[in-house]
Amino acid sequence: MDNINILVVDDDKEIATAIEKLLIIEGFNVEKAYNGLEAMEALVNKSIHLIIMDIMMPKLDGLSATMRIREKKNIPIIILSAKSEDSDKVLGLSMGADDYVTKPFNPNELVARVKSHIRRYTKLGDMNNNNNSTQLQNGSLTLDKEARSLYVDGGLIKLTPTEYGIIDLLMTNPGIVFSAEQIYEKVWEEPAYSVENTVMVHIRRIREKIEINPKEPKYLKVVWGVGYKIEKFK
Amino acid sequence: MDTKLRSLSRNSFIKSIAFILVIVMISSIAGIIIYGYYSGINPEVIFTKNYVNSETYTRDFRDIVQSLDMALSGSDGTIPDGISYYGTRSGQVIASSLSISESEIARIYQLYYHLDNGVLTKYENGNQEEMLTNFSPSGSSIFFVIHSSFYEEQQYLWESGRNQLMPLVITSLAFIVSSIALITYLFMVTGRKIGDNGLHLGVVDRLYTEVILVLIAGALGLWVAVVFTGTGYGSPNKWIGEVVIHSREMMEIYIVTGITAFTTFFVGLGLLSLARRIKGKVLLKSSFGYKVFYRGFVLIKSLIIGENLKGNPPTHTLHKRQVNFVLVSFGLVFLTMILMFTAYPLAFIPPAIEIFVIYLYFKSNKETYEEINKGYSESLQEQLKAERMKINLVTNVSHDLKTPLTSIISYVDLLSREEDLSDTARDYVKIISDKASRLKNIVADLFDLAKSTSGDINLDLERLDLKKLVQQTIVDMDDSIKDSGFIVKEFYPEESVDIYSDGKKLYRVIQNLVDNALKYSLEGSRIYVEVNKDDDWGMFCIKNTANYEMEFTKEEILQRFFRGDQARSSEGSGLGLSIAESFTEVTGGSFDIEVDGDQFKAIVKFRTEN
Description:
- The complex is a heterodimer of chains A (about 230) and B (about 600).
- With about 230 residues, chain A is of the alpha/beta class.
- Chain A folds into two domains: about 5-125, Response regulator (Rossmann fold, 3-Layer(aba) Sandwich); about 135-230, Orthogonal Bundle (Arc Repressor Mutant, subunit A).
- Chain A is built from eight helices and eleven strands.
- The longest helix of chain A has 17 residues, at about 105-125.
- With about 600 residues, chain B is α+β, with helices and mostly antiparallel strands.
- Chain B contains 16 helices and 13 strands.
- In chain B, the strands form three sheets. A six-stranded antiparallel beta sheet of chain B has the order 2-1-6-3-4-5, sandwiched between helices.
- In chain B, strand 4 (about 120-125) and strand 5 form a beta hairpin.
- The two termini of chain B are about 75 Å apart.
- The interface of A and B includes residues 14, 87 and 179 of A.
């Protein structure tokens, strides 16, 4: 992880410092900024590979800064905010952020997410361009239909045939909700009867394999009382 | 003793008996009167003991004289039995029932009468006395004698009539006196009850006073109508010493008695009700007219004075101006009409003034409307501001709590990564870390609860299957269920339970309830999870046996931060049930808790969608 520069933007200096120390332990180089404007300056002066951005800041807030940065740069931006509403998350992601972590955050989870985005940005950045037809890309998930295998941030994930079948179905139709019955009929190829538990157990296992925090899944989501889906990312 | 009598007099049974007695007596009197009428007994028998002293005798005597005169003049006329006569005209005997000559009459009879050309003279023991004079002179002279047989018969009839009638009269008098007494009693005690001094109004008293008056008048009118149309078909029978009543006449007696009883009943009820109203001073108030008048008064008062607008100065001004405008306009129209008939050319002045008044009216109204609009938008602004402030407060407090907590958690984490920590220090760091994450959960829960109770919560409502949701939640919580060692028994209906709600919120509800059951169940007991459905409701229900004595009410446990175990030792924010309740309600369901001994039961209900 040498020579990876991460910009931490937070008006709370102690928090910025804590994140800095955490990332230094993990071997990253860290720059700090205490508001949106400083962040913009830092971007001009230094080569930055990832930004961790607070929302509520003086002078220029995190959302506006994210929007401005997105106009010029394609680097991963992780929003780190005390705003925890779903609507805040949707807003942040639609402004161009790649991820949204709420305060108070779990340091290990933050590090894992940072690593995930760095991997994708540095190693897989090119893959987006020469996409072939058998490969499906969604966020940091890559599904190779020919090899029947799933990659998360380029790393191969071991899946059972059933698990692969489920992922295949959901990845092929991102954002679409499937009921347990539909999944069962398509993957098991048998008539479905009382299959909610069976399907849910598999979903949980897949989540544990592909999600950084399975309790707050980013990709494989349960639509409560309806079914399951894979969230659609760029 | 006094109170005993008092309570007895107020006994409703006694009162009813008295009322019935009055009805019976009054109708009896009516019957008796008709009976007496048809019996043909001369009512005078009551007042005079002897026939000869009676007015009737005087009348009868006169009739006898007249009929004698008429009979002898050649007209029709019957001469009663027991009377002998000797009539002459111009010295010639024209009729005689006496076999003696005129001169012998004075010698044989001590008492005889002589009607001579309209002048009646009584001869008694040689004395003569002029009696009645106003007979028309017929030119004839009649001597006549009334034999004692006539008097004896008349006296017999008189006395037998008297014997018949007297008891009836005495009875009637007694009835009248008793009725008056009972009626007085009834009027005194009506509306009073045993045991208190208050006045009690009955069902009848809820009717309008006018209704009662109409009822009384109607009953009386009916009585008059029935009595006048239903009686008088018979005629008084001639008194022959015993009562002869024909069936037709008997029927009339029954009719009169019946209708009198009927009328007395209704009139009595009505009058007693009126008496109660007077006693209770509600005679006027309970009348329809009063109500109409009063309502009208209130309406006019509120229309003209604008009583209910007083708290609101601009609208009150508007109202006053409106009333003034109408009055002034009315006055001007009136003035115009007068001027038209009196001073025609001047009639154009009031309309001109009216135009000016209308201009003033509209102008000042416009100003008031603007004032009202300004006040309205100001209050709306303030309301919005207050609402925004409340939401901002929740957001800000949440932010202000989360920011230092973020530092604590981050630095504790950094601290735990330090390699040269002593074991004791590492233990301490672990404790701080645990408590910090618990604090994090509490803050998150508190924020959720504040958001949902302040109503500022984003809902993502959709049609979903409650059965599916519960199944998903239970599987999702598989780890914590396994760790807890409890057996969760699940019961689901065959078909789906479609409801309209927010899946994510409802998942939190079910999760909190299952968590709660896992935390507070008796070791070795089972937890029952059930999804049910009927025509209208989809229902989730969770039952568990508590591992402590639940000495709290339903209300208490739903209070924020309430912890059933009091020791507050276990994990959790103490907000679980409050959040479950609040989220259920905010997403359109209803939440209920039942505590029965050691059994704890939570029920979440939603209307089913079809």
